[in-house]
Design goal:
Shape: globular
Structural class: mainly alpha
Number of domains: 1
Distance between the termini: 72 Å
Largest sheet: none
Number of strands: 0
Length: 132
């Protein structure tokens, strides 16, 4: 089957626009509370272990973790999460899983924050959960 040159040019433009929109969608705004991806990789396995693997993730775990850090850093309401983050219900569900008590009296989130040296967020987490 032969295509007219104008059809091929239009198809090429459409594909280029799709790639451009996907790249824009993937690069979200950074926030002061964000942790660098390299540091996050040191706690990724720990955080992934908290969730049963029933289906593939819809949202990047890094973005979810940064949203939790944003919540701890700003003290904002869950529903006030910036739209650059995953949906607030998703972030809240992960927060709930990560703040269940594990080793003795430390939560998984507290262990991850401790490993990253985020003392201010640990203090805020303890204040929110009523720990020590």
């Amino acid at each position: 089957m032969r295509y007219a040159p104008s059809m091929i040019g239009n198809l090429f433009r459409i594909i280029c626009l799709q790639v451009l929109f996907e790249a824009i969608d993937m690069a979200r705004q950074t926030f002061p509370s964000d942790v660098p991806r390299e540091q996050f990789e040191t706690v990724r396995e720990m955080l992934e272990a908290a969730r049963r693997k029933t289906r593939p993730r819809k949202h990047d775990l890094y973005d979810v973790f940064c949203a939790v850090l944003y919540f701890l850093h700003t003290g904002s309401a869950w529903r006030s999460m910036p739209p650059e983050f995953p949906p607030w219900r998703t972030v809240h569900e992960y927060f709930t899983q990560w703040t269940m008590l594990r080793e003795g009296d430390r939560t998984l989130l507290e262990q991850a924050l401790d490993r990253l040296g985020r003392t201010a967020e640990i203090a805020r987490l303890r204040q929110l959960t009523g720990q020590r």
